[in-house]
Amino acid sequence: VWTFDQLQGLLDVLVNVRMTVVKLENGGLWVHNPVAPTGELMRMLEPLVDEHGPVKHIVVGSAAIEHKIYSGPFSKKFPSADVWLPPKNWSFPVDVPLERYVPYYPLGSPKTLPEDTASGVGSVPWQAEIEHSVLQVGGSSLRGFSDPWFVDTAFFHKKSKTLLVTDVVLHVSEDPPPVNAIDPEPLLVRGMERPDAMLPNTREARSMGWGKTVLFGLLFQPAAVDVKIDPANVNKSFLDGFTWDPSWRDGFANLCAKPLFVPPILQVLAFPRRRDEVKRWAQGVAQWDFERIIPSHLDGPIDAGPKEFAAAIDAALTTDPRAFFGEDIEPLLAVDKLSRDLKSLEEPRPLTDATPIKYFVKPAPAPAEEASAVEVA
What we know:
Number of helices: 14
Strand content: 15-25%
Shape: globular
Radius of gyration: 23 Å
Structural class: alpha/beta
Largest sheet: 6 strands, mixed
Oligomer: single chain
């Protein structure tokens, strides 16, 4: 299993987006959430293709545009590969089937992932090696409150005991992912405590920039920052017109302390609408015997198994977001209230069964049989 990270973002708020490649037992490669097929990426993939065979399957696990948009250009580099998209895949603000505006798909693609491999309804060529289950949540007026606005897929690669997801669970560390530090300038700009206070290129400064990037990326308007835009110098203001209260460190430390967490936007806006469906999906995923998780953002691989995964989903379904994320969550809660006032999102639904998610536990090793010697006359 190999991972490849690129950067996505705006105005020096740059986060990593990750593609994962898995070697198939009978030769060839399986690609999860392809990133932009740059010359650099193609050169990195070349030795894998030479050693293990061609890309056979390009699999998009999410409906989010940043993960599916490169599936067309990537498939153009591997025209013999099949492209797989999740069910009920759609686009916003205009719902146009992806294959219409991405004209690069090979003949016969894209194909649609079955909703899971456990039910026996539909099949995929790799299901003996990689199981999967699709999560669909979050009724919206854009879809007539029927089809979901959030779609993610969990894939379980049995041989390496690895769980692959897109956005549903994350982990963040104090230090940025390596791809963010190749050119540290965006981190140093974002790390400034006040305008015109550029930081030196040190580990501490890069960590400061990463912490504030994460707070912006996950919580949109952290409570500790004051943004002032000077109309006479808009470009500069958007880059460094930020003054931070030292309390931002507490917000970032709170995120780093969590072994695994559901992103705030899902915990506030998506999961509450379909709590029972989320729990059923998570309970199925938690029955897989995985030892690490690779999401498509922030840290990865993460040393975590079914117990940690179940705990993260349980917390998202049952914990008050204020208690979990602190005052940084208030802007998202305001969006949630507005969406309910406007009836653009359906009303939250309580859990029918609030007992903790059941998860896979490795069987205890059998006790060693005691040997005894018997003298035979």
